[in-house]
């Protein structure tokens, strides 16, 4: 008897296959689909590493080994990755979204230490023997991170002289940035600090890039007034007042949770 599913029945023969809506692994196309899913999963894992400078010269095999020890985890906007009451001996590799690292004073004021972008590693201060117990890390957006526990960091990262040196250099740069901001908080006015912070956070353009054409997209900073105030060390009310002064002069444009920089060079003149 001829099979009802033979090719002679035409293009519609498999319109209603015998296995229903959920084809088994051996069904046509399933093996190729599974292979693609495996490749995509590996690519997702290693992306966390490939976008981070400290891993820039690792071989594919080294990347796969480290990626297997750094599973991905997601956090929703506003969720804490760690807090003083929950110190964690892990290394985070930021894949998507932004993370704010901050401290809180005894009187309840928040001081933002850093706004971290994708491709950044953080949590390394604790791993290098320094205390992070006073720090909070908050997801500003929906965030995806790769998480590596201390034993794996010791095994795969700190044991590699190349990576260990780069982690130390990264830590040094962050401490230097924080020292500069603390110095600014003493010697610069609030308007100068806000102008400096906005210019620090906008995406950098190539020095040879042509000036923006009328109607072209201007650089934006996705922060609320309260978040910006915490970053420069002032009150939300003061930050809002300064931002509106800049907006009235045409230097920036304000929207909910966003600041658009319209005149970069004029804003740079405000940094002092």
| Element-by-element helix/strand order | HHEEEEEEHEEHHHEHHEEH
**Which bin fits the share of residues in helices?**
40-55%
Average pLDDT confidence is 78
CATH architecture of the largest domain: Sandwich
Radius of gyration, rounded?
25 Å
Largest sheet: 4 strands, antiparallel
CATH homologous superfamily (4th level) name of the largest domain: Jelly Rolls
Flag low-confidence runs.
1-14, 34-42, 205-215
Structural domain count: 2
Protein name: Cyclic nucleotide-binding protein
GO molecular function, one term: DNA-binding transcription factor activity
Keywords: DNA-binding, Transcription, Transcription regulation
Domain HTH crp-type: 188-265
Tell me what you see in this structure.
This protein has helices at 30-50, 60-68, 124-127, 150-158, 161-187, 190-201, 225-232, 236-248, 264-269; strands spanning 72-75, 80-82, 90-96, 99-104, 110-116, 121-122, 136-139, 143-149, 220-221, 252-255, 258-261. By secondary structure, it is an alpha+beta fold. The strands form 3 sheets. It has a 4-stranded antiparallel sheet with strand order 1-8-3-6. A 4-stranded antiparallel sheet has the order 2-7-4-5. The chain has a 3-stranded antiparallel sheet with strand order 9-11-10. The longest helix is centred in the middle third of the chain and has 27 residues, at 161-187. It is elongated. Residues 1-14, 34-42 and 205-215 have low confidence and may be disordered.
């Amino acid at each position: 008897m001829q099979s009802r599913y033979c090719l002679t029945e035409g293009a519609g023969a498999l319109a209603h296959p015998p296995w229903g809506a959920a084809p088994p692994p051996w069904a046509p196309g399933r093996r190729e689909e599974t292979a693609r899913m495996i490749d995509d999963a590996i690519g997702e894992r290693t992306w966390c590493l490939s976008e981070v400078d400290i891993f820039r010269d690792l071989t594919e095999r080294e990347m796969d080994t480290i990626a297997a020890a750094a599973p991905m985890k997601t956090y929703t906007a506003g969720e804490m990755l760690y807090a003083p009451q929950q110190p964690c001996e892990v290394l985070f590799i930021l894949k998507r979204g932004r993370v704010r690292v901050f401290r809180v004073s005894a009187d309840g004021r928040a001081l933002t230490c850093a706004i971290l972008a994708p491709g950044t590693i953080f949590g390394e201060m604790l791993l290098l023997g320094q205390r992070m117990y006073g720090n909070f890390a908050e997801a500003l957006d929906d965030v995806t991170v790769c998480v590596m526990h201390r034993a794996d960091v010791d095994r795969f990262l700190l044991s590699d002289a190349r990576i260990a040196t780069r982690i130390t250099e990264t830590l040094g740069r962050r401490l230097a940035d924080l020292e500069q901001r603390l110095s600014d908080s003493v010697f610069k006015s609030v308007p100068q600090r806000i102008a400096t912070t906005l210019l620090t956070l906008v995406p950098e353009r190539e020095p040879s890039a042509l000036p923006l054409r009328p109607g072209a997209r201007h650089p934006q900073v996705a922060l609320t007034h309260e978040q910006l105030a915490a970053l420069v060390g002032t009150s939300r009310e003061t930050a809002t007042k300064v931002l509106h002064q800049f907006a009235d002069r045409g230097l920036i444009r304000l929207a909910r949770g966003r600041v658009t920089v319209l005149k970069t060079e004029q804003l740079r003149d405000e940094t002092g």
